[in-house]
């Protein structure tokens, strides 16, 4: 996947894409929304051209104090939707370093276990990312033509991803993620061939 996507999904659409429960507008509330805890959703800015370094809503199983809903296990874990920055910044990155969100915005599934930046996250730091589509560029000589890849029925694309938390020199914690990729499907051979 190239480093551009479209995400204008509402929090309820994101929750449904992840298979998380949502509230109902008929339940006396102010409308449809996620029925799971959310963190920092105010950081998300819907856009037709999202690139690494931007915040996107991410679905994960996280430790939640006193969690007893949403199918959480006895260990206090449950589903959560949290805004994280696209482009993995490993937790072992130096506190004074400037984060490079483009360096690890995706990871090849075939080699993810070989790289320490990703391998250590596989067990407990898995998550999901939903977007409406993404952009790929086809080279034609010296020109590049962008193509928007999405489902015909306009349902969200949900990607497997890995996340981490990095602390900068001021003590601020930034959660970041990388999307797991694999070989292009045969229906996209014309674009990658």
TrEMBL record:
Similarity comment text for this entry: Belongs to the SOS response-associated peptidase family.
**What's an example Gene Ontology biological process for this entry?**
protein-DNA covalent cross-linking repair
What GO molecular function annotation could you give as one example from this UniProt entry?
A: peptidase activity
Asked if the keyword DNA damage belongs to this entry, the reply reads yes
Q: Which organism is it from?
A: Zea mays
Would I find Phosphoprotein among this entry's keywords?
no
Q: What is this protein called?
A: Embryonic stem cell-specific 5-hydroxymethylcytosine-binding protein
InterPro entries from the xrefs? Answer: SRAP, SRAP-like
* Record's keyword terms, sorted: Covalent protein-DNA linkage, DNA damage, DNA-binding, Hydrolase, Lyase, Protease
